[in-house]
């Protein structure tokens, strides 16, 4: 065996990271991950960046010339399309749906600056990350590590919004274009801390970041007053950070009532014989227990709970338990590949629950690859599916600008909320005008509630830091994700588990 080939233990550790990290922020996850559960990968922080218009290069200079010049490069730093029209490409968690869209500024609330009246620029003062011509923001997301590219989509989405803004607003914010400095948090709390320590000195704010171990940079951000508008916060330490906010607002011990209420209304008998299965890794364990308790408080009953080891490839015994106990409602928390494995095991044993429920983690083409075994699966989600992009202008903007900065890239759940974070930053900064500084930006963000990024997702309580209560449902039908019932969100409050 080659010395360079990953060991079985290393591959299992990587799978554990994927299973844990991908479900942490879904459905009020925000739970803690133990850094000891992750294999730390090597790499550099701060200097590794993606070249392109409005992006800081390895030597600290802006690659691609004037960030407002309008050229939107590819990921190799070469010139891309002019940004006058959208590129076609895959636009969704699936390989179907979505489509090309215009990359011109649509104006109004959907314009890159939010369409509101910009505040006076009188009194504007430069500060960390701000020069006479640019405002530098940073993004620290998991690019390398045991699961390469884990949250690369969040960084790509932030880059896409910077390109959108600079193309649409050549005068920038009080005469200053946006520049993006990218960091690799490497699925490691230490790397996250290093990124934010650098950010304290070299950027004005961090925007759209997404890391499985985001506790590392929490104290650094709060300590230097660095505004941090994330795709979502994962750990309790990050949620407690007073200068940190999530475009997807989550609280560790809160779960939305929309899910149990849907089950109680549509599958009454099954709701009294539920089962919760989760991967025994990272946040999945805590989330499984929390969600089961919250749904029990709402009126459901569970007769089976099971943690599944990442190394376990035989799901047949668990399915047998489901059959023996007469389970009607099955919920699973883990990676999409593992959810497929459970679905296939159920099909092989001729067991079909009344409802098989998953969170947005399963909104991937990988899950649909399960074929007939995954037909009928129900997912709960809090953002507009990419299959419905034609009816949502903000989704079109995200998907089309993503293709401009990284042709062929697939939009994702985490990318959508990173785009949302970037829009929120621009809107608040524009509204502050000459009064913009780190302190006033944090104060302004504390007042943001019911944030939807122009309908890209359901209402999020960014400032109050509460889990969003509004969710909707999808089902797998004919090998595609389609709306289950109404496309409107159900907003039934949240349950707090003490």
TrEMBL record:
Residues 75-88, 102-118 have a biased composition (Low complexity). Residues 46-74, 89-101 have a biased composition (Gly residues). Pfam families: Peripla_BP_6. Residues 1-27 form the signal peptide. Residues 46-118 are annotated as: Disordered. Residues 134-479 form the Leucine-binding protein domain. InterPro entries: Leu-bd (IPR028081), Peripla_BP_I (IPR028082). Keywords: Signal. SUPFAM superfamilies: Periplasmic binding protein-like I. Belongs to the leucine-binding protein family. PANTHER family: BLR6548 PROTEIN. This is Leucine-binding protein domain-containing protein.
